[in-house]
Amino acid sequence: MVMKSMRGGKVGGFFKYVLFGLLGMAVGGLVLSGSFSGGNVGGNDVAKIGDKTITIRQFDLTLRRVLTRYNMSTEKAYEVGLAEDVLAGEIRAFFMLKEAENLGIEINQAQLAKRIGQVIAPRRRDDQTLQQALDEVLQSQRMNEKDFVNGIKREVSGDIISEAIQTGFAPTADLLAKDLYTFQTQTRDIDIIEFNDNEITSIPEAKTEELERLYNALKFSQYIIPEYRSVNVAIFDPESINVNISITDEEIKMVYEDNLQSFAIGEQLVLTQTMLDDKKKAEDIFALVEKGTDLKTATTEVMGKSARYIENIPFETAMMLPALFEAVKDREIGKVVSPVKTTLGYHIIKLMKVLPPSTRPLKNVQEQIKRDLLDEKQSDHLYGISTNFEELLNDEVSFEDIAKEIDITISSIGLIDAMGTNKTEKSGIESFPAPDKEALIEMIFALEDDIPPILEELPSGQFASVSLNSIEYKTYQPFEDVRQELADKFIADQQKVENKRRIDKYLAELDIRGSTFESIAQDNKKDIQTIKGITIQGDIPEPLVMNNRPLIFKTALGGYQALRLDEKYALMRVSGYSFPEIDENSKEAIKIIKERIDTEVKEEALLSYLHMLSSKYDATINTKLLERVYGQKNDEN
């Protein structure tokens, strides 16, 4: 089915964190059932966080943009739980935005413009202006400018909070970093005696019954001939549709009047403030102010270039932190109050003016209303086309006849398996964009003979429908075709078993009967190989294999073990070890380890803070809506 969100045109802020990587909003380990209350929100809202909501249209566009990085359909994402992870990230981003509002954080235009420039500059070609580069990004991501700017605001606010949370953690102790360095750079020396499987020559040939049992055990994994399908594909590309839409002044006015409450602004206090982490420096600044120095000069004098001085920012009184509101409760204009402590640190604030409740005038919001109406009408138009396409499919109209009504392209895909490869083991869907290939394969192998084709949105934003041409059902290579291969495998398996018994016998003799490593080598006319300097990470010297490393480092000095190599076993003795000296050459490596630990500790602190916010703010999810939109296909299958 076509997603209900085809009618939408907005995106939540979490997408910004994913797309541009400007804020690490990790959500691992915090699942919906553990952090949010399930249940019904109502209507088309997929989540409600306090007085804010996330509509299914907003969330669906966010989800699809995230999934383009994984070449995954929305239904598959819902099935494996990724859709819930993305929704969890969206909700946490709203938590951070809510906390920023309550802490009185507001981003001025200069900060906002600077960050937008930083985001767009790497994507700007030499022949483009920043605005052209921005337009290109918005078009490619099917996003409007308002949502983009709101996302940037959310990022900057989140940066301020995360920086404040992380700066309170002390650097990692040198001793821990040195211990980790020692652990990571220790080495082992071993001696080995190799025993090849093919030295065991007393294995009788397998009987037919034994080979048949082996065939039946292996045919489902090794001798399967997969199902192949060929299909026709119809593609509808919304980008190819030119929509001539106009918005009248009457429509804009009607939207404005119907949504006056959305443009209402409560009473505001306009504040100028300085924010600091250090109490002593905050007191020093306030002392200068009391002596007659203005707040900006005093801040610069004490903090220099690191000053956080914000001028003339309005805060709605209903949203202010209690501590800040209490500090200016007397409404004395021009008064600088003594340092106030909040979660973000210390604030020195000056009340500039009091703004009574008001409503944003139409002239200030009409352009944004117009853009939103254009987005909605265009989405409605495309939704109408896709709905018509879907209805024609349900009526079993052929792709060729549909093409007479709707601008679609039709192509054929020859016989391919569920991995997308043809019988020559080459890709059979090379002509399609990379993000769409996995989704198309999933559609092809979900088709059933007696069900009409369905329409689905691809990760690229195009819509596709597939119809079956032919099916070659799954089968298996005949027993006689693989008989010799089975016979060889039977012998090799028995040789491996007998070789392991031989090694186990020698290990027992070393422990009990008084044999020595050297005597075992001499009795079998074999050389003892010495391998020195085996590290705990990185490459491992031949003939060893990676799986040997844990056993080598678990074995005590002078201890013995059996190692499985390629088509052989080795009797091993740990003959030596080394731990590095901490000297000038190791200081840089220890420094890197220490920095990595510091980073991980700070990230853990931010995750803990986000978890705290999930307990502080109420969030409800519309689980039934998620199931209805994304779970229907899975239920049907």
Topology (SSEs and partners):
Elements: H1 14-20, H2 32-35, E1 45-49, E2 52-55, H3 56-67, H4 74-80, H5 82-102, H6 109-120, H7 130-140, H8 145-166, H9 174-185, E3 187-196, H10 208-222, E4 224-225, E5 228-236, H11 249-258, E6 264-265, E7 268-276, H12 279-290, H13 295-303, E8 309-316, H14 322-327, E9 340-342, E10 345-355, E11 358-359, H15 362-394, H16 399-402, E12 409-416, H17 434-446, E13 456-457, E14 463-472, E15 475-476, H18 483-513, H19 517-523, E16 529-535, H20 549-554, E17 560-565, E18 568-578, H21 587-616, E19 619-621, H22 623-630, H23 632-636
Helix pairs in contact: 1-3, 1-8, 3-5, 5-8, 6-8, 9-21, 11-15, 12-13
Can you describe this structure?
The longest helix is centred in the middle third of the chain and has 33 residues, at 362-394. The protein has 4 domains: 4-169 and 599-636, Triger factor/SurA peptide-binding fold; 187-223 and 480-578, no CATH class; 229-245 and 364-460, no CATH class; 267-356, Chitinase A, domain 3 (Roll). The two termini are 13 Å apart. The strands form 6 sheets. It has a 4-stranded antiparallel sheet with strand order 16-3-18-17. It has a 4-stranded antiparallel sheet with strand order 12-5-14-13. A 4-stranded antiparallel sheet has the order 8-7-10-9. With 637 residues, the chain is of the alpha+beta class. The protein is built from 23 helices and 19 strands.
Entry keywords:
single chain; 637 residues; alpha+beta; Triger factor/SurA peptide-binding fold; four-stranded antiparallel beta sheet; 23 helices; 19 strands; 47% helix; 18% strand; flat; disordered N terminus
